[in-house]
Amino acid sequence: SMMAGRKTLEINPNHPVIVDLLSKVKVDKEDAAAKDTAQVLFQTALIESGFEIADPSALVNRVYRLMSKELGVDPDAPMKEVELPEGEEEAEEEE
């Protein structure tokens, strides 16, 4: 009865992401990227299962940090204005 409503998160210990996470945590238990990856895996599993997550913006920030790390971009770098050539700027406004 009580167990009927519970969900189980199954982790494949042979999956390359899990293997990589384990190796990172063995080297440094405080590895920020490993923590972010684990949180993203868990929260996306919740979403995929139909649950709502308590703090969607925290998930988005983790995804941005992981993307920045993957791209070699400083996630705290200031925003830069990008100048578009005049023809491209007008084309965007028309769309």
What secondary-structure arrangement, pairings included, does this model have?
Elements: H1 16-27, H2 32-48, H3 56-71, H4 86-94
Tell me what the structure shows.
- Helices cover 57% and strands 0% of the residues.
- It has 95 residues and is mainly alpha-helical.
- Helix 2 packs across helix 3.
- It is extended, with a radius of gyration of 19 Å.
- The protein starts with 15 loop residues before the first helix and ends with a helix.
Descriptive labels:
mainly alpha; 95 residues
Unreliable sequence segments: none
Q: What structural class do the secondary elements suggest?
A: mainly alpha
Mean pLDDT, to the nearest integer, reads: 84
The rough form would be described as extended
**Largest sheet, strands/sense/barrel:** none
The total count of strands amounts to 0
Give the C-alpha Rg: 19 Å
Distance between the termini: 56 Å
The amount of helix comes to 55-70%
Summary, kept brief:
The chain has 95 residues and is mainly alpha-helical.
